[in-house]
Amino acid sequence: MRSTDPAALAGAAAGALVRQQHRSARALNMIPSENSASPLARWALAGDAGSRYFFNTSGDPDGWAFPAARDASEAETRLTLPLLRHLTGAAHVNVRPLSGLHAMTLVLSAWGGAAGTPVLTVHPDQGGHYATASLTRRLGLTPYLATGPDPHTLDPELLHHLVADRHPRLVYLDQSHVLFPADVATVAAAIRAADEHTVLYADVSHTLGLVLGGALPNPLAAGAHGFGGSTHKTFPGPQKGMITTDRDDLATALHRAQYDMVSNHHLAPTCALGLAAADFLAAYAADTIAAAQALGQALHQRHLVPEAAERGYTATHQLWLNTAPAGVDGREAHRRLTAAGIHTNVLSDLPGLAATPALRLGTAEAVGAGLTVQDMDQVAALIADAVHDRRPADVIAGDVADLRAARAGRWQLHRHPDVAPHIKESFA
């Protein structure tokens, strides 16, 4: 029988957390929907701000009903919001969502219209998020799905006719499985030609860092009325959400919905988001995409052929790999990679690979850990050895750990000499 003694349970949990930390430092995490927050961002998660509410966003001297957050709130108002407005080019940035799915809920609620109003979103066969349509229904709205001729393309003509026929209040453009992002400019033009009153929101949860680094087009500049999503995939931030817009009326509607749907917006991660923005290097975005493309080519050379090889494998951080043609079931490939210290997704709902267990890989965290385009050939060799069971898993895992140890992480505290004394003081 397992112990129910609190001290014993706490000790076991502490040991598990230490093992997690050690294993993470030795492993190569290639899950596209995860990223390790920069050390500067992680520091903010350890302090008192994590215990506080912050409601007085207007700065009203008489508005501090919850005064304990007065100091920490400055990190949100004087760092997080100004930097994110600068990086996104948006007039309004809302950092109240707790996650990407929470941001989706707020956008649908605030901008989707009254009960029964049509909302247009992306079919999962073209990469749309599994929850968008069902969440739309739960909020009393009526979803319609945009499709296209292949897993990587939305048909702008069909999109135009769907908007002209249904007149949705909102088009929610989301792609969680995405090798080649939809062209926001083309989508925006098709919508405007059909109904100039329809709002276009781009959920860039998976590609936020690629957008903020300039490697993919800014949706606002391309004609969207807003964009946002989660902040921990291709952006090296905490697990949080954000929403941007240039329109005052949309920002006001969002604030009204937020009043009912968000109380504690988690001040510490919001401060961490600002520190991640201060840490962010634009070159990381282009390097992440280049690494994914190089990894795709290197895997192809080892007879593990990622999807869309004819199109250059990817234009994002993601690769999709069906290992069945190489004689290895996707689930078994996933088990072997995990044992070898290489973390991936195994999914059976990737567009074009329905019901086929296949691997989804991403390069964002690897590049943040210091790996380069030149390292992708070695990464491909390690993946191939693991998938084909050519060497013992623990031997491959040792090589993975050696590769990690030989690379300095991209996000270094010494780049911020003005911050270091405050970090030291906080732990004194």
From TrEMBL:
Alphabetical GO biological process terms: glycine biosynthetic process from serine; tetrahydrofolate metabolic process
Any one annotated GO CC term: cytoplasm
A Pfam short name: SHMT
Keyword set, alphabetical order: Pyridoxal phosphate
Tagged with keyword Protein biosynthesis: no
The keyword Glycosyltransferase is assigned to this record: no
Domain (Serine hydroxymethyltransferase-like): residue spans on this chain: 19-383
Cofactor or coenzyme needed: pyridoxal 5'-phosphate
Superkingdom of the organism of origin: Bacteria
GO molecular function: glycine hydroxymethyltransferase activity; pyridoxal phosphate binding
Assigned protein family: Belongs to the SHMT family.
Name of the protein this chain belongs to: Serine hydroxymethyltransferase
